[in-house]
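Input for the complex:
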Amino acid sequence: GENVEQHPSTLSVQEGDSAVIKCTYSDSASNYFPWYKQELGKRPQLIIDIRSNVGEKKDQRIAVTLNKTAKHFSLHITETQPEDSAVYFCAASDAGNMLTFGGGTRLMVKP
Amino acid sequence: KAGVTQTPRYLIKTRGQQVTLSCSPISGHRSVSWYQQTPGQGLQFLFEYFSETQRNKGNFPGRFSGRQFSNSRSEMNVSTLELGDSALYLCASSLWDRGSNSPLHFGNGTRLTVT
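Predicted:
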């Protein structure tokens, strides 16, 4: 089955800096890669997703890149703000709709 | 549109008991998935239902089971509870069309504590 590895497990940045979280996946059939943000005590919420026919996608300060050949994808957050502090999860799925999640990255943005 | 609703929010059970958790998906969503979230293991996939049929199953023992009703509401059951079953159980719904994924929308979860 699919295996998703996520790095780093914790990331501390200064407010205004950029943050990058990387994930690798094992199943070449995976074609959907969402990213979820989970604030303390709250539900995971989708922040951005990308499909295998696209190499990059942006939404304001957030961008995701996908390298199908190398089987890795990354989340980029620019101009970080304290409210970006949360746990971020990457995930991968084939058309069967079963998401396999990475282990999560705790992002701390210091004011 | 109402979000995914999970009940109850909190449960405390003792070892050996069984428990049933409930999930009401977003209106129109026919796919319901269940995940177990623990600090050490992250988000682990339990199973996914679509049109009352279990389509996918994760690597959990047979003590974990589920079902989906004709109105897409889903229940998850855990029998013979063990201490290690203590976790946040998250339900997620999605539209899902064959051959194309759609985003999962998570509920607030049920926090189960087994003593």
